[in-house]
# Entry
Amino acid sequence: MQADFHYYATYCAAYIAGYSHEEALALCYSDQFVDCCTKTFLKSVSATVHAATSQSQAELVDTRADAVGLQDITRIWSSFHFLPKDLFAEVRWATKTYKNKYRLICGPNGDLVKDTVDLAKGKSIQAAGIAMHVLADTWAHQNFAGTPSLVINNTTNDFYEIMPDGETKKLTFKHSPGASDDIENSVYNSTVFNPSETNILNLGHGHAGHLPDYSFIRYKYLPAWDNYRECLKDNPSDYRHAFCQMIYAMKYLRGENAVFEKNTYDEETAAPYIERIMTIITKRQGDASADWKAFGEELSGMEIPDFDVNAYVQEYKSAAPEERDETFLGRFIIAALSQKSMVTNKIFKSGNILAGFSIDYKKKGFRGIKDYRKLVEEHVRNSQ
# Structure
């Protein structure tokens, strides 16, 4: 997904779910900031790089494709953008190495989605925003994995858009980094084929370009993980489900719902606005920010400022070291460390080391990276 959904649509869902204008702004900012919080950014504000929730293209290019480098990539992308649906999924006639990669395939309504939302319960507004980013991406990024893998993430070039009248139209792909998609003529940008199993070009949905990020499109394609059998992706339906599930989840985080259950969507609360929502979702455009922004401002009667990645930098940098955890970025960093730690631990406990090793500090004491110690200290404070 892009800023149009992670920022503006999330604001709308948060406001509909009962958050105030100010709370909705903080929440949607945190949601979108997940795509911006790279190691480069964190270094620029003298914060721990272990809180990175994304990687820039330059960072990915510089990452070594050894076991440690691949684990670092997997921790970031599986924790925040390609949350695994089933860490114990069975695959017949497959090696353990293949199974471990297959089990990282993203999808909605897996156990880790519930774990992610539950983790944010009672925590900061930043934690809620991170959880909404992760939840929404399980819908957009489903059927791809957050680890470099040709045998999982590769596709053929046979993509066919299903038009509103039912006709199909073959899509054309080009390989021009940084170039814009030509939606009107169905020409899309994607990564070039690379035969190396663990090359970064085989991370996530690179071979499908930005198609998963566009809410309007319905298409058929042939993915490697399913032995190149035809797969249908219905983005309008998926984005509607994501929006209604976010409302349900945020009501839970606010305390209005007693529990968060999988496969549950607050269609009732969204009903008065669903025609407007679906008009935005199905509009054939590469960026729906203006439409979502207009809708959000109509809902609250307040202005939604454009996203500014540096909005909270000065507050963080000018705070005394012992007070930084209480700043906006400080709370985001703690929530990001917590989410990454939880997902990495779940993957490791499933017998899969693609995201690295994880030690249960309750049983063995703290032996991890020192920047994670604050999670232990926070847990101790909250349990007292």
Remarks:
- The chain has 17 helices and six strands.
- The chain has a mean pLDDT of 92.
- The longest strand covers residues 218-221.
